[in-house]
Amino acid sequence: MNDIVISKFGGSSLATSSQFKRVKEIVDSNKMIKVVVPSAPGKRDEKDHKITDLLYMCYQLSSHGLKFDDIFKMIAERFFEICDSLSIDIDLENILEEIKINIEKNKGRDYCASRGEYINGILLAKYLGYEFIDASDVIFFNESNEIDEIKTNEALREKISMDDDIKYVIPGFYGSFMSEVRTFSRGGSDITGSVIANALDAKLYENWTDVSGFLVADPKIVENPKEIDLITYKELRELSYMGAKVLHEEAIFPVKKKGIPIQIKNTNRPQDKGTLIVPETWEKNREHLVTGIAGKKNFTVITVEKTLMNSDKSFLRKLVSVFETNDISIEHMPSGIDSISVVVSDEELNGKLSKIKEEMRIYLNPDNIISSSNMALVAVVGRGMIRTKGISARVFTALSSNGVNIRMISQGSSELNIIIGIENSDFETAIKAIYKAFYE
């Protein structure tokens, strides 16, 4: 493992010239930083627009043969403000003009969307005195729109010298396939940083944003929830899947392969400890059994009842295939001897409930099918829960004491989490009650 750090800065961290100055202070204070990965400028305030959103608007207008000059002017003004305020000496006008012409020539949605990171990367590299590397030259996708790890790693190791003091800026969010720009999903700059950390065997991957790491619960629900100092990859996956959003959920995978930790830090409060995301092998005594509480609303439960269901070896396969052919992801499948329930999000179901039930009747010949909606799922996650007695009892007691009715319970074999199904209307009450049971 190399004694270097890869640092990614989010859109809010690079939204203005004053934020650029903060980033420079952070980077200059840590000589181990080898590569900086910038996002496109984010919102300066609540009424502002993200640069990427404006670029998508340019693409939409251009693809319909409409003028996008006014929106592109807004983009240009944002970059000129940064450039002029920091006295960055580059030919920004020519860069913007070339991009505008390429959008008019319909170079594609991904090309258009990625130009915020591209320009920001050029500006930041010049401002920091770092070498700029276009992500299209080192981040490669394959036919399946997944990272071509071998080709990407070779390119990064060839371009980046580990034997000198040269430092680099590589824009986030995009790469290339067959010489054409390809992007990750929104928030994909997190993935770029992780891919680079993996390729260069970095000691640490820093992810700088506008919050001081992960919180035990949503601060919109729980007042002043505690910060999570340390969390494992697996715990983070569970919480991210259930709605806790600070880091792109796919950003874990590249660094996980080599056990590289991720440090979530606040650009505006660099003195804060932040959250360290580590491999499962890292041991540390824990003050709390529960690491985090997260959840999502709006699920539907479809329960299929059939006598001797457990003796029908093809039953489960036929049930799952109904959802597969309708392109619906299944969240959970709690079961009994003669019944099984399928939990799906309303967003996935998308008006297909009647069709699903009809196909179940045809292929499964059930005794009964019952569906119920308006369910929320709450996940209680923590490595400290494994083989610890009484966790479930504390959760259920907390919910019962606060008048929350439990509709479903699911616990994986890893014992890393307990997932509880409740009424949508009880969602906030449930999270507050569980938090109080373990943290107050």
Automatic annotation (TrEMBL):
Annotated keywords: Amino-acid biosynthesis, ATP-binding, Diaminopimelate biosynthesis, Kinase, Lysine biosynthesis, Nucleotide-binding, Transferase
GO CC terms: cytosol
Molecular function via GO: aspartate kinase activity; ATP binding
Pathway: Amino-acid biosynthesis; L-threonine biosynthesis; L-threonine from L-aspartate: step 1/5; Amino-acid biosynthesis; L-methionine biosynthesis via de novo pathway; L-homoserine from L-aspartate: step 1/3; Amino-acid biosynthesis; L-lysine biosynthesis via DAP pathway; (S)-tetrahydrodipicolinate from L-aspartate: step 1/4
Catalytic activity: L-aspartate + ATP = 4-phospho-L-aspartate + ADP
Limits of the ACT domain: 380-440
Enzyme Commission code(s) on record: 2.7.2.4
Gene3D superfamilies (UniProt xref): Acetylglutamate kinase-like, VC0802-like
Function according to Swiss-Prot or TrEMBL: Catalyzes the phosphorylation of the beta-carboxyl group of aspartic acid with ATP to yield 4-phospho-L-aspartate, which is involved in the branched biosynthetic pathway leading to the biosynthesis of amino acids threonine, isoleucine and methionine.
PANTHER family tied to this protein: ASPARTATE KINASE, ASPARTOKINASE 3
Name of protein: Aspartokinase
Species whose genome carries this gene: Soehngenia longivitae
Taxonomic lineage from the root: Bacteria, Bacillati, Bacillota, Tissierellia, Tissierellales
